Amino acid sequence: MVPLGAPVAPVLDPSGPRSFHEGSEGAAVRLGVDPDGERGAAALRAQVGAGPAVPRPRRHRGARAEGDAGDGAVVERVWADIDRVAGVIVEVDGRALVVDTGHDRPRRRVVIPERAAGRIQVRHPWLRPGQLFDAVGLARAGVFQALRPATSQMPYRVGAAERTVGRETDVIVGSVTWWNPGEGADAYGLAYPALDPSADCGPGCERAEVCPPLPLLSTGSVLRVRNECAGREAPVAVTACGAMASRFCDRCLACDTSVRGRIAELTLLSFVALGGDPETGCFNATITVE
Asked: Annotated region Disordered: where (predicted)?
């Protein structure tokens, strides 16, 4: 439902000047690699001294290409092993953390490399249990290496963020972020912060009063998501609960200053397909309930 225009896909075989990517129907699509795309992957890995920028097959990665699918398309960007952790800190041991990412997602082990510590501390100067945490980095053997903060707000304790007063409408503006649903989950879709608690949010749902106010929806609902920074839009189905996003009340600064509040979390591939930059972490968006 999401893929539009330029192909966006997981990398199957990253070797050589042309690489194989999984197409929308599961078939392999061969794409050329733009040198700038290779440099982008190298730059991210270089931040933690991760060695050559050669993404391993079937790992956490995505690619965005320019042109039509097939031999005419060239990979514009490759994100190798990129991941994100957003949630509430529950344990701290120096620069090692455990973060609760939501009632329907696993807790994540987080390590902040020494060379990334200063950058992370800009937005997370106090790493304490109960503080909100959001960072983009690399996934390695079950451990997340946090490289850069993915929020514009200073750290709040969970539940302490300011809330916006307003009324629910079918046209919603705010910040759209992304998450990596992992192997075996829907590659395309979005997690919505205001699922119906009686049916779709599930047991243990920690949904807060959403900032800004959002209409209650169910899984399977279709939303038209427009990236106001890139001018791209597409219908996206609600495939998961995004209750943890309701805890954040920050602004997106990707191309302008958005109103406060995270209104959806796209899967990594959906986010890239709509022109988002995973390293930036968000884009200013308008969502219409279809």
From this structure: 1-23, 49-68
